Amino acid sequence: MSAGLIAHGLLLAASLVLVFGGAATAFAGANALKRIGGVIASLTGALVGLAALGAGSSVLIAAVAIAFAYCAVGVSLLVRLQESYGGIETPAIDCVDLVDEPAEPRA
Amino acid sequence: MSAELALAALLGAPVAQALLVLALARPPGLRDLVHVLGSGTIALLAAYLVHQVGQGETARIVLANPLPNVQLAFVIEPLGTLAAAVVGGLGFLHAIHTSGMVRAIDQKAPARLMAFSALTTAGAMAVMFSANLFSFFVAYQALALAAFPLVAHVGDDESRASARLFLGTLLGASIALLLPAMIWTYTLAGALEFQPGGMLAGRVDQLSANILLALFVLGIAAAAAPPMHRWLTMSYTAPYPALVKVQALAVLPAGGIGLLKVFAYVFGSALLTAAPTTQILLGLCGVIMCAAAIIALSKTDIRERLAYSLWAQALAAIIGGLLAAPAGLFAAVLQIVATSCAATTLLMAVGTIAAVTGRRNVADYSGLGRVMPWTFAGFAIACASLIGMPPFSGAWAKLWLITASASTGVIWAAALVGFSAILTFAHLGPLAAHAFAGKAPTDAFKRPDGASILLVAPVILGAAATLGLLVLADPLASFLSPVWTPR
Amino acid sequence: MMAALEFLRLQAPIVTLALLFGGAALALVIPHGRVSWTIGIVSALAALIASTQLSWAFIVSGDAMAAYGFLALDGAGAFAAPLVAVLAFLALLAEAPTLADRPERAQPYAIALHLAGAGAWIGALLARDLIGVVVCASAGWLAIAGLTALPAQRGAINGALRMTMAGGAGAAFMLLGAGMIGYATGSGDVSGATNALIGAPMTATLGFVFILAPLMLMAGAAPLHAWTGPAYGRSDAVLGLSIASVGAVAVIARLSAVAATAPAVAEGVSIALVCVGVASVLIGSVQAVGAVNVRRLVAYASAAQVGCILLAVALESPAGLAAALVQLVAFGAGAFALLAGMLASKDSTLAALDGMGRRAPIAGVAITIGALSFMGAPLTLGFLGRWRLIEAGVGAGWWWATGAAVITSLAAVFYGGRLIERLYFRRVTETSVFDADPWRFARVPVLAAAVLVIACGLSPGWLLDLAARAAALALGIGA
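^ Those are the sequences you sent over. The predicted structure of the assembly is below.
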């Protein structure tokens, strides 16, 4: 009983670490691929957490579907980024976007 | 015509006037005719309502129920009706003058100027006839929005900056200070309806009364209480016809009347409970009033000089209201009426002078009175009224202010009013005197035909109006007595 | 015929969703852009009628709707569903002039994604269980992200990527949160927390926070709104982004109402909403005052408006929730009026608005009224919403809520005044390129509708009554 509780606790802790760590990477990753990886890690952590909390199979299937959808959209955007910018490094992409912005005339 | 219909017509007429002026902008004669006739209609309706109020009639119209227990409503009552009649009557003269000015100086976008002038009148009328704090708040914001294009009319960087300051100060203060004051009043009194005797009388503790008073005085920035006055002193960049509306005929008087309505109908006897704040505000307004008159002396542009001078006059009206006595309230009303007459006349005269001679510097006024005798006669009479020289209306207002101050024991306020009158003489008296005493310039006129009748007649008639209080003081006192008499 | 109509009336929730998703599927299949657009308009209009009927029947008449395993009606959901539907309809109308600017292959996708996004957010408002809310919110978010990425400009793709990454991380939190609430309350239903014996209140509270925080991010609330700058500033799909924002706020209101009925979690959720609400008001206001890209200005201004709504929701009282619902309508209408008006200009800089008041008068009026509503000018819906927030706040002893409302309005005076000055007091410059496409007249109903809704500030009795009833139903209080 206590071993099961400990295991559940560890699983939950691991899921929180994955969710938070993945989210941090998704927001601040150096390139788009790492950010997508962060999202996948975060969603994986959520799946682990749901399993630890005893969620039903329908819930787990829905979570997998959500993860797949985000992954698919993320990868397609990654491809389009590569085509448009010639790279996937987010700081460089942001710099190019700033240059693209029309300068505001002085009021 | 029923009083309700007249009130509705008075509120709607300026809006219709604005739309018609825009629609009938060409030919210019038609535009000017519409503008003058519209202003004349407003003046007649306002005079009719004064007659109705004098007969004891009341009227109330409700335009909307935007919130539970809160109506957008307008009502005829002595204070607002009197102010509306003064603004309406002088507005007619101003409309004639505007027609002359736009021709004389080939004003840019005259139809737009006249349209927003009419909308500003609508806003001022709505403020004066507001039945409750919510209606006052709505009308006040509408007034600020309508007057903003007038200040920005010239379209250069200087006027745009002045306009931003104007709108930012009026709207910002109304949202940051007046709106919370309104809500607080609602929670204390359970209603927002204006009530003779004050809706807060007996319902507010000392601390709340003090804070509320400060919020209202500073929130109604159109009254130009310091430090919310910069919009007034910076508004001189507006074209002359707009300047009259902003400083003499709509914004400043509406702010003053609005503040007096708050003193009379919101606070009433509760104003005595706000003792520390009233004393502080009295002192601040008194000292700044004198400072404004001194600053005016340093200004060489006549528009800037008049802006500071009118600021001093506006502060005198606030002092009257803060005395928390019927005599003080009466004095404040007289002060606003007298200032309106004199300021309108002065600004119209200054506009005429600028249009015909191109002169704006006070040093260039020397001797001009010899070549423009009628205009400068009006100018001199208006100066005398602002200074407080009898028999002009300003004298009666100052006299009542001093009497009210003395009777309420605030002798130092009476002294400050007197000192301010001396300082006003210092910055206006020599100006008028040198205009007649100086040597007539040989190259005065830009235009060979001088000033048209449209530019001169309103100045003379406005000056004549400043004599009105000579005979009207007593009737006005009884007309206004319901304001400070609880039902 | 009558029997069929009665059947459809009882099935209003599922009919609404079917019309939107079905319309999306059909629009996707048709290769011709204008035909897809027409299908989209018809579907959106039909869904609007169905959702309005749903809302009226449930909130006003108290009619029972047919129950489905995955759908459940409550006050907040029923109130907000027609709002999302009407915004989707108007967004599709506004899409007409810009459709030709898209590549031909992308045109049906644009229509389909609009419909699917709206359908998903309405699904989140009507979902029975928490996982359904998460699935629908994620679907709605991805649809709008896809819409953002459709234009040819590469900046829009960057914006869409940021949305996707933020949404993905947020979905993880939402999933975990749903699991935690289910674990603590013993039920996966949205209303499971109501009057439940919550064995693990901390877990339940954390669960609610984990669900609500990503929704606040999706709503564009500061400081979680880093994605809004690139997304709003570089994409034409700003109306779709507004739909997502309104939908997310509505879902927050729905879930928070449930949390309010559970004493064990109510306080924690309220604190979280207050923290984000205050931050959103302050940060959004400051950023909006300094913005030079007009679409980003609206995004930051929307953050401030959302902050006020969150504060109203945080009150967890019938008056507070009613105020939030009224503000939601005002926010949606105001943002739409602003953005739809701005779409009349091809450029998104402030200078592009110069002289628009004369060149595109209807758009100028819409922007002006939207700005006035954001300012809380009297006789606009914005004023009504703010007044109700202050009333509810003062009633609960939250005097500082007045301060938040005042700050929002004050900041709006500055940036709204700047917009109005540009519209009417500046001359047209070479950067001002106005839409001359004949299809631009399809935008007129959008602008007129926005103006009319805001003009409801004059006679808002029906809206106030509806909001009050919806709030009472959401909180389980007898209407």
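Chains A and B do not touch (no CB pair under 8 Å). The two ends of chain A are 71 Å apart (CA to CA).

Shout if you want it in another format.
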